[in-house]
Amino acid sequence: MSVQTKICGLSTPRTLDAAIAGGASHVGFVFYPSSPRNVTFERVAELAASVPAHVKRVGVFVDPCNLLVEQAVAAGHLDVLQLHNTTPARAAAIATKGLEIWGVVAVRTRADLDQARRWRDVAARILYDAKTPENTLPGGMGLRFDWTLLEGFSHDMPWALSGGLDVENVAESVRVTGAPLVDISSGVESAPGVKDMDKIAAFLKATSNL
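^ that's the sequence the OP posted. Answer follows.
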């Protein structure tokens, strides 16, 4: 199978170039002030200008207001809105014509997976991520959930896997879940919010062989 890869939380030209050179299908920019990966509109405009057409630009948001989405889309020429802690109804209200919506489903138990069905009429893709403790960031913390929960699960729509992935376990994650797209952030960092070019290259090399 051919596995697509999203490198998320990019904030510098060099690490963005590493993601593109390594074959990432998607690059993610975080618009959430509490995150160490948050980017300004000025910075994302600079970064987005060097993303080739075949690579999708993903804006990552946490229950955003309309103005934030509008400004981020304009600055980053976004192709996808990835929405954490956002209800499907709210996502439908902020959906921008021509952009994909990715609904994030936080997973700890098998019952959590059923939340994906609420997104059928709104999202183009579901992103399964590890559920984080209360009062912490909703993603990018290096936490993973039990991948065997996805074994035999009937997916109603395209989906992706995130949470605690790294170069050592990505092959296992795909083997267990059959994920068509994997999403990594902290697993290619040397410190929170500091992407490592060598780790990006190694991860993309690993996924290119899956």
